[in-house]
């Protein structure tokens, strides 16, 4: 495709929820773009959500402040649309509780991480998927809706392990995660596999920061899944 045609398509990324994850999403998207045989860098814009750190931390373990996030997300989406983005991606599972409002705020497509993960699970013939996520993602049921629609049962960690997951996420958001978080996450994964999960979904994009680069076959990275879907959609434009 001629270079000038690249100007007609641009991936807009709402970042800042957390920053490390947004950076990893950008890197992975650039890698996939290059791997697809393109001759230039990926046409991409990144807009950091201006939400407070305290709000980000609160959303890991409570629904109390979830409504505060919507305006920040919609403002970022509108800025990306004004800047020429032709498709949007949000590499944060928790923020997808506002996916409908986000889609209504702009006139360009907004990909859904929960929908893309559910599609991937379905293609892999998964019947029972364990969802490791924040309290907001769990209690809002956003994965339940998209998975059940494709015949996939969702299961979640025990109450104690849910608290462990939230602690790991909070430490990752504060740039404080270490080997102990990696070991704790692996222990949670082992326990929920024993409960009968076919696969485990890292349904918080910060959790992939506590895993080895080469994930086990039974662990799905939601961030990478969204990146793959974003590039596939961008290439079709």
* General shape: globular
What percent of residues adopt helix (DSSP H or I)? Answer: 40-55%
Number of strands: 7
- Judged by helices, strands and strand pairing, the structural class is alpha/beta
Gyration radius, in Å: 17 Å
Number of helices: 10
Q: Could you state the order of secondary-structure elements as H and E?
A: EHEHHEHHEHHEHHEEH
Stretches where pLDDT falls below 50 for ≥5 residues? Answer: none
Give the neighbour order of strands across the main sheet: 5-4-6-7
Between the first and last Cα atoms, what is the distance in angstroms?
11 Å
Main sheet overview: 4 strands, parallel
Average predicted confidence as pLDDT: 91
Task: Name the beta content range.
Answer: 5-15%
Strand and helix layout:
Layout: E1 11-15, H1 19-35, E2 44-48, H2 53-58, H3 69-82, E3 87-89, H4 99-105, H5 113-123, E4 128-132, H6 135-140, H7 142-148, E5 153-155, H8 159-173, H9 179-194, E6 199-202, E7 219-221, H10 222-235
Parallel strand pairs: 1-2, 1-3, 4-5, 4-6, 6-7
Can you walk me through this structure?
The chain has 237 residues and is an alpha/beta fold. The chain is built from ten helices and seven strands. It has a four-stranded parallel beta sheet, with helices on both faces. The model has no long low-confidence stretch (mean pLDDT 91).
């Amino acid at each position: 495709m001629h270079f000038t045609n690249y100007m007609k398509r641009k991936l807009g990324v709402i970042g800042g929820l957390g920053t490390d994850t947004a950076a990893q999403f950008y890197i992975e998207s650039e890698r996939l773009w290059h791997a697809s045989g393109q001759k230039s860098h990926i046409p991409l814009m990144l807009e950091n959500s201006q939400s407070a750190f305290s709000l980000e931390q609160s959303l890991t373990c409570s629904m109390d402040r979830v409504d505060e996030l919507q305006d920040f997300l919609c403002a970022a989406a509108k800025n990306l649309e004004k800047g020429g983005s032709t498709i949007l991606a949000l590499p944060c599972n928790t923020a997808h509780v506002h996916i409908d409002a986000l889609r209504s705020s702009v006139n360009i497509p907004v990909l859904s991480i929960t929908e893309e993960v559910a599609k991937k699970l379905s293609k892999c013939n998964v019947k029972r998927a364990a969802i490791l996520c924040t309290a907001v993602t769990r209690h809002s049921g956003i994965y339940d809706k998209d998975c059940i629609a494709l015949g996939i049962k969702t299961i979640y960690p025990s109450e104690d392990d849910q608290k462990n997951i939230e602690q790991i996420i909070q430490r990752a958001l504060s740039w404080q995660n270490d080997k102990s978080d990696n070991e704790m996450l692996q222990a949670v994964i082992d326990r929920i596999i024993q409960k009968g999960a076919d696969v485990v979904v890292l349904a918080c994009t910060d959790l992939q920061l506590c895993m080895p680069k080469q994930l086990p076959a039974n662990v799905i990275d939601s961030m990478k899944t969204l990146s793959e879907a974003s590039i596939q959609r961008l290439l079709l434009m």
